[in-house]
Amino acid sequence: MYKILIKPILFLSDPEKVHHFTFSMIRFVCKIPLISGFIKSMYVILDKRLERNVMGLTFKNPVGLAAGFDKDAKLYNELSNFGFGFVEIGTLTPKPQEGNPKKRLFRLKEDQAIVNRMGFNNGGVEEAVERLRKNKGVLVGGNIGKNKITPNQNAVDDYVICFNALFDHVDYFVVNVSSPNTPNLRALQDKEPLTALLNTLQELNNKKEKAKPILLKIAPDLTDEQLLDIIDIVKMTKIEGVIATNTTISREGLKSSNKEEIGGLSGKPLTNRSTEVIRFLSEKSNKAFPIIGVGGIHSANDAIEKIKAGADLVQLYTGFIYEGPQLIKDINKALLKH
């Protein structure tokens, strides 16, 4: 029903306006008695064989919602009704920020892709914390970043603020230094500043009564040499693992008229590169750490390929927008067959 009836209507309007409209509709519909249960009955598959024990956490199934969709933790409870095994909120920053000027979100229909240059638009970490207090049992990851106005030499302070604020309210953390939409952010992926940042967070983590998993989200545009550095950094800092990958700045092979728009590209064009990065990290590290695979998952087979390449869990974003919630169910059904 989504692809035949709902998506064609939604795709007639500006994508950012549609995003906010969809949020409002899901929130409204899920408040109607029995509707949440009906949605769950359509999409949620509860089967012990789908459970994954990763990073000391138990995931009901290995299919999660990637960061960027529910930036401010406004809808994670309702979104879990569509069958997600976990939801990652954020990217959150210490202070609220508007993000980049609009228009900043573009569909590339011919390529089944999206370009965004949102710029970490969010209401700030404290607002999200208040909403996370209302968690009804959803496994939540917290994706954290720095404010645009914070210079890179002070970036660690922003990540520390977010880490401390979210610690009691999320199950794992994701350090985002790979978005192309905050000026100079990707410079933090260089070995020296990245190691310093992760060591600082790990020191804080280890002082807690019970440490929580910290993952690093990386860009698909890294070279093999840089990926080898990532493996070394994970080992040196003793963080839990990696999310591969964020959006790409590449525009190779695109057909859509919006292909020249500045920002991060997500969706089908990223499928192969994301899987290549997963396989490289898994093989070169000898499966030394967990990997969450994200990027261009538009079918159950795409997800299976990432798991075969070395991903322990997978996440959807653009595929969820193009394919709808049936994709989550299809992936979980395919995993049961495997």
TrEMBL record:
<feature type="binding site">
    <location>
        <begin position="67"/>
        <end position="71"/>
    </location>
    <ligand>
        <name>FMN</name>
    </ligand>
</feature>
<feature type="binding site">
    <location>
        <position position="71"/>
    </location>
    <ligand>
        <name>substrate</name>
    </ligand>
</feature>
<protein>
    <recommendedName>
        <fullName>Dihydroorotate dehydrogenase (quinone)</fullName>
        <ecNumber>1.3.5.2</ecNumber>
    </recommendedName>
</protein>
<keyword id="KW-0288">FMN</keyword>
<comment type="function">
    <text>Catalyzes the conversion of dihydroorotate to orotate with quinone as electron acceptor.</text>
</comment>
<feature type="binding site">
    <location>
        <position position="176"/>
    </location>
    <ligand>
        <name>FMN</name>
    </ligand>
</feature>
<keyword id="KW-0285">Flavoprotein</keyword>
<feature type="binding site">
    <location>
        <position position="267"/>
    </location>
    <ligand>
        <name>FMN</name>
    </ligand>
</feature>
<keyword id="KW-0560">Oxidoreductase</keyword>
<dbReference type="InterPro" id="IPR005720">
    <property type="entry name" value="Dihydroorotate_DH_cat"/>
</dbReference>
<keyword id="KW-0472">Membrane</keyword>
<dbReference type="Pfam" id="PF01180">
    <property type="entry name" value="DHO_dh"/>
</dbReference>
<dbReference type="InterPro" id="IPR012135">
    <property type="entry name" value="Dihydroorotate_DH_1_2"/>
</dbReference>
<feature type="binding site">
    <location>
        <position position="143"/>
    </location>
    <ligand>
        <name>FMN</name>
    </ligand>
</feature>
<keyword id="KW-0665">Pyrimidine biosynthesis</keyword>
<feature type="binding site">
    <location>
        <begin position="116"/>
        <end position="120"/>
    </location>
    <ligand>
        <name>substrate</name>
    </ligand>
</feature>
<feature type="binding site">
    <location>
        <position position="217"/>
    </location>
    <ligand>
        <name>FMN</name>
    </ligand>
</feature>
<comment type="subunit">
    <text>Monomer.</text>
</comment>
<dbReference type="InterPro" id="IPR013785">
    <property type="entry name" value="Aldolase_TIM"/>
</dbReference>
<comment type="similarity">
    <text>Belongs to the dihydroorotate dehydrogenase family. Type 2 subfamily.</text>
</comment>
<feature type="binding site">
    <location>
        <position position="181"/>
    </location>
    <ligand>
        <name>substrate</name>
    </ligand>
</feature>
<dbReference type="GO" id="GO:0106430">
    <property type="term" value="F:dihydroorotate dehydrogenase (quinone) activity"/>
</dbReference>
<dbReference type="InterPro" id="IPR001295">
    <property type="entry name" value="Dihydroorotate_DH_CS"/>
</dbReference>
<feature type="binding site">
    <location>
        <begin position="246"/>
        <end position="247"/>
    </location>
    <ligand>
        <name>substrate</name>
    </ligand>
</feature>
<feature type="binding site">
    <location>
        <begin position="317"/>
        <end position="318"/>
    </location>
    <ligand>
        <name>FMN</name>
    </ligand>
</feature>
<dbReference type="InterPro" id="IPR005719">
    <property type="entry name" value="Dihydroorotate_DH_2"/>
</dbReference>
<feature type="binding site">
    <location>
        <position position="245"/>
    </location>
    <ligand>
        <name>FMN</name>
    </ligand>
</feature>
<feature type="binding site">
    <location>
        <position position="296"/>
    </location>
    <ligand>
        <name>FMN</name>
    </ligand>
</feature>
<feature type="domain" description="Dihydroorotate dehydrogenase catalytic">
    <location>
        <begin position="50"/>
        <end position="336"/>
    </location>
</feature>
<dbReference type="InterPro" id="IPR050074">
    <property type="entry name" value="DHO_dehydrogenase"/>
</dbReference>
<feature type="active site" description="Nucleophile">
    <location>
        <position position="179"/>
    </location>
</feature>
<feature type="binding site">
    <location>
        <position position="176"/>
    </location>
    <ligand>
        <name>substrate</name>
    </ligand>
</feature>
<feature type="binding site">
    <location>
        <position position="91"/>
    </location>
    <ligand>
        <name>FMN</name>
    </ligand>
</feature>
<comment type="pathway">
    <text>Pyrimidine metabolism; UMP biosynthesis via de novo pathway; orotate from (S)-dihydroorotate (quinone route): step 1/1.</text>
</comment>
<keyword id="KW-1003">Cell membrane</keyword>
